[in-house]
User: Fold these one by one.
Assistant:
Number 1:
Amino acid sequence: MDWFDYVLLGVQAVFQGPVAFELAGFAIPISVLMVLSGFLLGILVGSTPGLAGPMAMAISLPILISVFGYHESALLPVFGFLIGVMKGATVGGAVPAILFNTPGTPDAYMTTLDGYPLAQRGEANKALRVAHISSASGDTFSDIVLILCAPFLAIIVERYLDLPEKTALLLLSMAFIASVIGRSAGKGLISVGLGLLAAYVGTGEDFSPRLTFGSEALAQGFSVASAILGVLIVGEVFKSMEDMRRDGISSVNARVKNSERRRGLSVGLLRSISPYIARSALIGTAIGALPGVGSTLAATLGYTTGKGRHAKLHPQKAQFGDGIPEGIAATEAANSSVSGANLIPVLSLGIPGNASAVFLILAADSIGGFNPGPSVFRFNADTVNPELVVAFGLFTMMMLANLLNWTIGGRVMRAMGIMTRVPKHYLLPVILLLTLTAIYIQETRLVAVWFTIGFGVLGYLMRRIDMSPLPFVIAFILGGRLEETARQAFSATGSDPWFLFSSATCIVFMGLTVLILLLSARSRRS
Amino acid sequence: MKKVIRSLQAAACAIALVTNVSYAAQWQPPGPIKLMIAFAAGGGADTQARLIAEEIEASSGWKFIPENVTGKGGLNLLKAMKGQPNDGSVIGIMVTESLAYNRLVAGDSGLELSDFTPLTTTAGFQMGLVAKTESGYKTFDDVVAASSGGEKLRFGAMSPKLADLAYLLGKAHDIEFNIVSLKGGKAVMNALNAGDVDLGWGAGIQGKAVKAGEMVNLVSGLSKPLDLSPDAPLLKDLGVEYNADGYFLFAAPGGMSDDVRNALADALSSVAANPESKAGGLIQKAFGGAAIFKGAELDQMLAADSEAAASLLKAAAE
């Protein structure tokens, strides 16, 4: 069995697997059907403000498993559906960001900066087309890299990063986020601090919960969903309500000009955005391959790099943030190209880099028969390695989802623009209701809804004082991991208090951390 | 068509009634049963609980409302469950370690064994001390040899009890392990694969890798040999008088009447023990088959576990 036989077996496993039904004489394999339904659900979920891919994956996983059972044959259909949702939500996530200024996921936040101004100018269709083409290109590129590099890249990265280095890398990414986003590094750091504070409520190693003031409700800590959706979505809803109260209700928030509706993107525009797509796809893929650093950092890096480049090349033209297609392209290509590369550490080491990957691992764990880890990529010469067949089946389904994305993705995505016709004063309560319902479905405890509203108030206050909520969100997501890795690094080095400076790589990471903060503080002052 | 559906419904009811007679003839829950789950949603343990509930719903018409109450090794669940009605309307799933070691180590938790009524266990853990085959360790003696050769070894453990056992195991052989606490068995496997730790505890999750020859069970953490590696020495043989015997456990608030307790325990255990059921199939696959203890036998086991945990805590503090 050489590698080509495995590729063939993987493709066969998808297309010649169990049949769902026959359509005009053609047998439709169940895996293909699952990819398609997952993809459509993903776009719908991604483009509905208040919902996000991981949430849909979380809700559908138990249902899928109870439908398909625990046999190895369940692996491909379940993976297919989850991958469909992941990809659909990635491309759909740009819709609410562009049309309503409410990012469905933290990594779509940067898309709002240029997408929403464009939509307000009546160019929503153009913005959506740019988002789709950038997202689909980034995604496809990343999948190709995944398929080519999966076995080698992650193992090399992992070999050079021990626990202390991972801790230092997390610190570096937080410092970077704090200083890059928003107008002031000080506010960014405060935002990071608040995120860490919220992440540390009720958590930790000790059996008596910390920072809870004896409250049982706080003892479980805040869930990721309530903190993130609260700050990002509910906070935005509160702010918009205040804006509406001040400015009066206007029924138009984003117009799609009729003349604009059918028009594709001009060659000139494609030419001008393609360098940004290419650069961001590279950045996103590189970041995705690092275990544990997710798509939000990629989006931020892609956007800032693009922004710097644009300011240098075209200082006289409109800049990032004024509502230009390049800004959308830079963000969407970066955050979409994370998803494929993110599976490099997942498949070769079993370590997830983002929430979607977590659910793929959970599915593999629950069904069995596929153990993400180095054993997946063992090319047995004499016997068939069934896990490698599943891996190639997975790659086949990813490419299939990409094909769907290129062909029908843009159309479905723009069809979601129908929601622009809903006046904002009807839409906001719906978003609020959907968000709170989704939280309750996920948490099944009412106090989580109160937490979400509380975080919504925090998000509103942050917006009022011009403090970016994004560092808060990233710090909240990485906070638990930071503490865990730091504790582990400390005990693994035999309780060495200087573990953050124990190797050359660590020292470089820590040096960069300090340097970034100092530089951003200085440049802002001048 | 309507007729067909109606007759199907009638048949389903009849079947449900017949199967019910075995364990639930005398008792019906007062309403929907709140099922608290001490594990994160979507994992194997959570799925096990939900599938068991689903199957009882289908066969007996009882209604379950699952709720994940995670964190602090099951103590969050125990605190939330303490004082709730003991009429069968609230039950929870955790591990036996939650009621024994974790309850004691928290000290000020205010939780007593009598605050809870244990119902039944469903499956046990195949706890082994695991290393990667490529590390070159074939037996625990190799580990001792490497350590006396000056190598600093990292030892991954997913609970404080297992960290204590790792410490005592090292102490018995003059090794000071750098004990790294990790969240869950999957994290230990990841850390082993990534080379972040040299050794680690696996509660059964290592089975596939051991079968494939990628990992080895160096020591059985149990009071008996491991199914997969019967030759691996027991902790007892290596000078540690404690063990990591543990099970998934359904429990309810304390002071429950025997009728209710038996009805619930029978319903839960009969699904778990049936390998034909979805839940039983999962248990077979993920945890190596059902292990059922209930009634007086379970009470004795938990009391003994608590005693052993108290003395383990003392031994590890010395």
Number 2:
Amino acid sequence: MLTIDKQNENHFLLIHVSGEADASSSIHLDKAIRDAMDEGMPQILIDCTNLNYISSAGLGVFMSYIEEINQKSISFIIFGLSEKVLKVFGILGLDQLLTIKKDKEEAIETLNAV
Amino acid sequence: MRLSLVLAVLLWLIVILIDVLQLLAIRSDLDLGIRAEIPRLIEALFYVFIVIYYRFKISNVESGNFVDLLWRVFATGLVTTIISLIFRLFYSSIDGTALANNEFLITALYDINKALISVFLISTFTVWKRLILYQKSKRLVFYWNTFEAGLMLSILFNLTGYNLQSHLWFQILFVALGGMSIVLSGNLKWVAYLNFKQKWKSILLILLIIIYIFYFFSYLYTPPEESLAFLQDIDSLFLIVLFTFLTFYSIFSLLVILFNLPTSSVFEQKMEEAINFQRLSQSIQQGENEDEIFDVLLTSSMSAVYADAGWIEINSHDKESKFIAKHISREKINQVKEHTHRAKSRTVMKNPFSSDKDSERVLITLKKSTYRSVFIVPITVKSNVVGFMYLLNEVTDGFNKEMINIINTFASQASVSVENFRLMGEAIENERYKEELNIAKSVQRALLPEQLDHNDAFQIHAFTEAAAEVGGDYYDTFKLSDTKFAIVIGDVSGKGTSAAFHMSQMKGIFQSLVQLDLSPKEFLIHANTALSKCLERTSFITLTYYIIDTEKREIEYARAGHCPTLYYDKQKKEADFFQNKGLGLGIMRNDSYKNFIEVNKISFNKEDILVLYTDGISEATNSEKDEFGFERMKSLLEKNAHYDPVMIQKVFISKLYEFCERKDLDDDYTIVVIKFK
């Protein structure tokens, strides 16, 4: 089960992702990010504090936006990854391509620094 | 069977002979010394053999062919009567001559006649038995057997020489057996199974059989006219009981058939309904299609309610409605439909299981149409209304409650049949997919190497299992030279069929690139370029590429986002994971990919162990959602490092199953163990 919750804060969009992102539920994650992209959101924060598990399909969703993020110069920041999930990102090498921060404060700091 | 007939005939000849001899003896005042019981005994034996003969003969007739059985009785009776009449004719022709008073002739002819009559009686008895025992119950069989046993014993009773008129015992037994025969005559279930025509035939045959019985009775027992007695001495309990039983049963059957005649058409109709119902439920087994099921439904429904015309209309979303019509043209159908829409007199019967308006049955009375009553029944499949059946009758109120019930049963049975038909189609389709998947499985199995390339410097062993029929795990080896080997392990994102396709692409890429003898980094860059063009946007492949040089005793490797390799150092007696940077194939689909690849080189020593695996092992979880994890793998390798690769693999997999408490893991899992010498 994966729950997606969108929240507009000041100047950025916050997407809360909680539960397990497996092959079937990742579709919802993809839709949430796709919608945000299509709306032309310049700053997107993904809150993964309650994300317990991510499968390769879930990673595939994040991966597929890397190019678009770079092209459109969108600030796309993931934060709150659990140790287990962070490790999965690390093994695959996604941590080198995505901005991953420890928590919301750090993420917002990064946003403001830009 | 034949033997008993021959014996019976022989016995009767003996009886005639004895009778004639005795007559001769009386004439000449001689005592032959033959006791009175002997001819009676032979007569009794004759009856027994005839009973045996008919028992076999009649049992050969097909059960349920009642008219045929009655016809046999009639034919036997006819033959007997004709012979008897010929004798009489012969007798009257010689009337007045000396021959007519010849006692020998009279005796012989009487004996022959009596034999024929008893044959007729016994054959009729056997047929009646068949009729009574049609649709038998345990109680009936018991009752019948008692009666039959009593009757057989009565043959022996003849030996006493008692007669009806003067012996009380004879009278008591006669009343007892006669009473039983009346009770048994109440079993006339077979009559119900005759159709109208058969009933008429049976009436005729039974009537003639009754006439025979009376004629034979009078022949045997009516005294000559000059006699004062009402009846001649009745000396055979067996024959008189037979006469009683046969007469009662014949009369009972006759009356019952007669009274059943007017209702037989209703019964036939019911039978036809039952047969139609069976046809509906069986139609799918005979490989018929849906149209044929609807056709059977329409035909059976129309005949069940005496409808003058009718049609079935099957609606489908994408195509035009389909019509199956009987005795009505398309033009007329449209007319009637229009009339029904406008008709005011309509009775709606709600479907108790559905509130949908479509699933209501409607009874409509039309005024200005050839057809005065219309009954509309919805046809539902899987609780969806797929069409309607219209039944038309030229008279008003042409459908009664009974008919409506039958139609409902028919319609629901047809729905079940169609449902089953569709389910069967789906099942066949599924079976085909399964078959296809099995083929895919064996094809994929063949993509993984059976023999792993290696030389004397190391041992190698691999094990893989897919969560579904096919999976996305991949490993392969290639001999670059006598001392140089390329080894690869990979995992395609996702699982199942799509992963399997990508895995086979990976195999192709590996097999083409490996021959170029590239460095691990070059290999990964080329593989990434190739895969970027064929993987869909959200898919990627993780891979680790190793080149083992047994001459230099070195391993060069590069990791493309794959799980870190587990390595056991014999000298340190420690296992650890290779820590190096990397990025999965297909993630970065441009030239910058090379910036994310790191190449590492280590030298190996004797009895060092290299464990390659996929995340199906490291990320396998138990019921508490704990992962099998790196730490567990590390200590497992350290504890079992003294084993050979096969044993190490077995320990890993058995510990994995133990940890997960099951064998059907959610992901594909692969382990390759290399041990250096």
